[in-house]
């Protein structure tokens, strides 16, 4: 393109134009903006929820690493924790109902800040001499009990070689939203549970620490291995959604044809005048391809920004919904931090721009030719 045509392109994309003209000029791209807002929000929502489920596997399941061998916590960094836990099966009963549960025996320091956050744990002071147990809201609902109530836990005693009932105080309720745990897991004092002792590690350097421990002859497993089926399902679901979103983005790129058609219809007399001045038709095609792509890129950027902003506005609202007023939310993970999948969003933008270029290459020259004939 020559300099005159480049200036023409700049004018048509809004340089030196009045705000009202710019707004009117960009109206045809609103559909792409809307599509990008929806797609970006969907990507962020699913990525955030999958990260929350991973956190549930870690903080409600077995930690970042799990071992059957004793681990000396004094050898860990200040931001790492190791806990001894016991596990056993039991029957829990209230006046109204009973349920088969898995009991995890833990110490008081087991409930550190991040774990309390992920569990959405609510507690009350135990002013009795009874052991405090922490139930999920799902189990509490099935037993028709709440904070401060009493329940009976029938648990196996290895010393007496028989099951024994333990009268307990409901000192806490948690809600992860993940039924794999919420439907059967309760927490009890470590000394109350006679079962297999394991050691849970919470660390930001799982791979490095695992290598160190295995060099010292300590066998460990990561949460990805302990809950392999769940973890693989998370990865598969996120990958499938990413692929669907990118495909929708590719299809959305073909709306560039509609945008270019609007501009050519609007400017066909200008185009006719440009051609009469001796400008080649191929240069005019390149000019309108440039105009359309620039408008599409502006729409992409605006859609991404609005999609990210809407995520930060809507997701905290969802996280703060009261599950007691909306019981169906007990079946979903609704409390999570916003995670923005930058790479996937960039891939979506690139796919949409490439599909726009492809659609314009296939159709733009034909549209300009037919509209110019009409104008002349």
The overall strand count is: 10
> Helicity level, as a percent range?
40-55%
* Count of helical stretches: 12
Provide the β-strand percentage band. 15-25%
Mean pLDDT: 83
Structural class: alpha+beta
General form: elongated
Which H/E pattern describes the elements? HHHEEEHEEHEEHEEHEHHHHH
How would you classify the quaternary structure?
A: single chain
Distance between the termini: 23 Å
Question: Major β-sheet, in short?
Answer: 10 strands, mixed
- The low-confidence runs, each spanning 5 or more residues with pLDDT under 50, are 372-376
Radius of gyration: 30 Å
Family: Belongs to the ABC-4 integral membrane protein family. LolC/E subfamily.
Protein name: FtsX-like permease family protein
Pfam family, one: FtsX
Domain ABC3 transporter permease C-terminal: 244-362
Walkthrough of the structure:
There is one protein chain. With 376 residues, this protein is α+β, with helices and mostly antiparallel strands. The protein has 2 domains: 3-54 and 233-375, no CATH class; 81-202, no CATH class. 54% of the residues lie in helices and 18% in strands. The chain has 12 helices and 10 strands. It has helices at residues 3-12, 19-26, 30-62, 113-119, 137-143, 179-182, 206-215, 223-226, 228-252, 255-276, 281-319, 342-375; strands spanning 65-67, 81-93, 98-106, 122-123, 131-136, 150-157, 162-174, 185-189, 196-202, 220-222. The chain starts with a helix and ends with a helix.
């Amino acid at each position: 393109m020559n300099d005159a045509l480049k200036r023409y392109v700049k004018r048509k994309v809004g340089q030196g134009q009045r705000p009202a003209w710019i707004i009117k000029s960009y109206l045809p791209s609103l559909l792409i903006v809307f599509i990008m807002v929806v797609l970006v929000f969907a990507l962020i929502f699913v990525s955030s929820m999958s990260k929350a489920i991973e956190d549930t596997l870690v903080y409600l399941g077995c930690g970042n690493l799990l071992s059957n061998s004793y681990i000396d916590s004094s050898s860990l960094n200040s931001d790492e924790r190791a806990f001894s836990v016991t596990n056993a099966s039991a029957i829990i009963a209230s006046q109204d109902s009973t349920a088969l549960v898995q009991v995890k025996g833990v110490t008081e320091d087991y409930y550190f800040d991040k774990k309390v956050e992920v569990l959405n744990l609510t507690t009350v002071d135990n002013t009795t001499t009874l052991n405090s147990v922490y139930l999920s809201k799902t189990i509490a609902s099935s037993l028709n009990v709440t904070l401060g109530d009493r329940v009976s836990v029938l648990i196996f005693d290895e010393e007496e070689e028989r099951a024994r009932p333990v009268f307990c105080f409901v000192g806490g309720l948690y809600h992860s939203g993940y039924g794999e745990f919420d439907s059967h897991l309760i927490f009890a004092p470590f000394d109350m549970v006679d079962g297999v002792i394991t050691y849970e590690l919470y660390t930001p350097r799982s791979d490095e620490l695992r290598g160190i421990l295995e060099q010292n002859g300590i066998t460990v497993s990561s949460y990805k291995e302990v809950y392999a089926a769940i973890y693989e399902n998370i990865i598969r679901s996120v990958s499938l959604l990413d692929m669907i979103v990118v495909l929708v983005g590719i299809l959305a790129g073909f709306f560039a044809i509609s945008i270019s058609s609007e501009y050519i219809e609007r400017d066909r007399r200008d185009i006719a005048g440009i051609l009469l001045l001796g400008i080649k038709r191929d240069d005019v095609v390149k000019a309108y391809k440039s105009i359309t792509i620039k408008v599409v890129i502006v729409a992409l950027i605006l859609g991404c920004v609005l999609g990210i902003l809407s995520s930060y506005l809507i997701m905290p609202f969802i996280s703060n919904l009261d599950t007691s007023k909306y019981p169906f939310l007990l079946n979903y993970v609704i409390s999570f931090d916003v995670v923005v999948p930058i790479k996937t969003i960039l891939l979506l933008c690139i796919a949409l721009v490439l599909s726009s270029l492809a659609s314009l290459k296939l159709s733009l020259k034909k549209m300009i030719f037919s509209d110019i004939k009409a104008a002349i």
